[in-house]
Amino acid sequence: MNLTNCSRATQFILVGLPSVLGLESVMYASIFLLYILSLMGNGLIVKIVITDRHLQKPMYFFLCNLSIKDIGHTTTFIPKMLLNYLMEKNSICFFCCVIQLCFYFLFVVTEFFIISLISLDRYLAICYPFRYAAIMTSEVCLKLSITAWFGGFLSIICQVVMIANLPYCSSNVINHFYCDAGPVLNIAGGDTHLIEALGFLVTMVVVVSSLVFTLISYFFILCTILRMSSTSRQQKAFSTCASHLVVVSLLYGSVFFVYLRPTIKNSSFTMTKSVSILFTFITPVLNPFIYTIRNSEVKDSVRQMIGRKITSLRNL
Predict the structure, then answer these.
(1) In what order do the strands lie in the sheet with 11-14?
(2) Average pLDDT in the 10-31 region?
């Protein structure tokens, strides 16, 4: 087939979620509910961190970044997917697909950097409590946050540009519920080996290095906790670290399965879609609850905010 003379596809068809006969409405209603819960939970974290001066600390600053990431991540594809279902069509324009692919991977890659920053923050707070305030200043936190987002952008932009410039002539049907690299490359013409190698390299460098950094941080945290003389302090530190490691396990386990393979072009996308549901729908909902459910400062801030709202409504 002469790829130079082909007519480039201007619109793609998304196959959608794995079909469950007769339960499509329930499935999409559940996704809508998860999306609303994600917006509410993560939006609440962003609001209280910005407005409550007691929460303007490094840990909450990084959690706020994680919540912004989760809001952007889910908004990248869920509204479009729900709109397509309501309109009974699964089409997406070529440039919309490229933009979705770009932002999706930006948020995914940035999350690994933010998770690493949270583990660094907990390492310094627990292992060096007396030097913590001097090290993690507001300026340092801001610089680390900017580096995480900029690093995420640099990690994905080259691959996205290369994917956007491939010819799409033989098919315009993407076997996924959003524009993901593997399914898009599967319908692309031309040689995709360089793009796949680049994607695998980025995955290895970003995902594996951030996982190793996070695990090493929590190893030293665990050693420090075990040396604590106070049982109550040990329990509090263990509780915090355990909840963080739940997020790490869910995130890295699913991403390793989906992306950490030399060739993703010819992968089994039915299984990939099923695993993708875990970190695209479930994890963004769980993050605000897992990180803050045992946090007394966050609970107090939410109670105060609700109390102020009730008082203002009574005064109307």
Answers:
(1) 91-93, 11-14, 173-174
(2) 79
